[in-house]
Structure formats: structure tokens, C-alpha cells
Write a structure and sequence with these properties.
By secondary structure, this protein is of the alpha+beta class. Strands 1-3-4-2 form a four-stranded mixed β-sheet. Helix 1 packs parallel to helix 3. It starts with a helix and ends with a strand.
Length: 149
């Protein structure tokens, strides 16, 4: 009986700590996204721009590795038995992509816009070999364009 109580206590602690960390990360992402509202990152098939007005065009990138907590991993494992949407993985990928885009924007010092943005996602870590999700890496890259004043 004591083992079950300890297991449930650790499970609850993992759930609480994981939820707190995820909520805090989302708050931080939201705050940083407001700072970069004036720096658009877009993808367009054809970009019409006067090349005479471009001062500089450089490749910028940003990557983020986000791990899932054990409680959510346990819930995702249970979801795999019955099928359906795995929301814990959705929030994991969402946070990784948004964080990678923010880091890319931070690397575009003084740019007017970032064009042709691409995002690559992959699983990494020792569980990735077994086909399970341990950590997710998101890499965002694009061309930062600085316009002449």
C-alpha cells in the first residue's frame, strides 16, 4: 500500500511540476512574441521587392529542444493504446516551433523582415531510437532582409 501511495505521490508531483513548467514557458513565449511583433517572418511564393532598397540579406536560424515530462509521456503511452489525438505532444511541438522562431528572430539583429521561413522538426534523445518521443528539436531558418533607410 505504501508503494502505491509513493507512486501516486510522485505521479502527482510530476504532473504538477510539468504543468507549471509548461505554463511558465508559454507565458515567456507570449511575452517575447509581443516584443517581436514588428519583425514579420513569412513565406511567400513570389516576393516582389525593389532590390535597390535592400541593404543586407543574410541567413538566420534558431533552434530549440524541448522535452516532455514523464507524466505526459505516460498519458501519451496510454493514448497510443486507444488511438486519437495526443494533446501532450501537440503542446510539445507547438512550444518547440514557437521557441525556434523566436530564437531565429533574436538572431536577425536590425532586420526589417524575415522571408522564406522554414521549420524542420525531429525527435532526438535515447528514446527516439526506439520510436518513442523523448525530446523534440525544432529548427527555424529564413533570410533576414534589412532595408536601406
Amino acid at each position: 500500500m505504501a508503494d502505491l501511495i509513493i507512486f501516486l505521490l510522485l505521479l502527482g508531483l510530476g504532473y504538477g511540476a510539468g504543468s507549471w513548467a509548461e505554463k511558465r514557458h508559454y507565458q515567456l513565449i507570449g511575452k517575447r512574441e509581443k516584443q517581436f511583433l514588428n519583425l514579420p517572418a513569412l513565406t511567400a511564393k513570389k516576393l516582389v521587392m525593389d532590390e535597390q532598397l535592400v541593404e543586407r540579406a543574410i541567413l538566420v536560424s534558431g533552434s530549440a529542444v524541448i522535452s516532455i515530462d514523464y507524466f505526459k509521456r505516460l498519458l501519451a503511452g496510454l493514448r497510443n493504446i486507444f488511438g486519437g489525438t495526443v494533446k501532450s505532444y501537440e503542446s510539445l511541438i507547438d512550444r518547440a516551433r514557437r521557441e525556434a522562431i523566436l530564437r531565429m528572430k533574436e538572431n536577425a539583429h536590425g532586420a526589417s523582415m524575415i522571408v522564406n521561413v522554414r521549420i524542420e522538426t525531429s525527435t532526438i534523445g535515447k528514446n527516439a531510437v526506439k520510436g518513442k518521443v523523448g525530446s523534440v528539436e525544432a529548427l527555424a531558418y529564413g533570410t533576414a532582409i534589412t532595408m536601406k533607410p
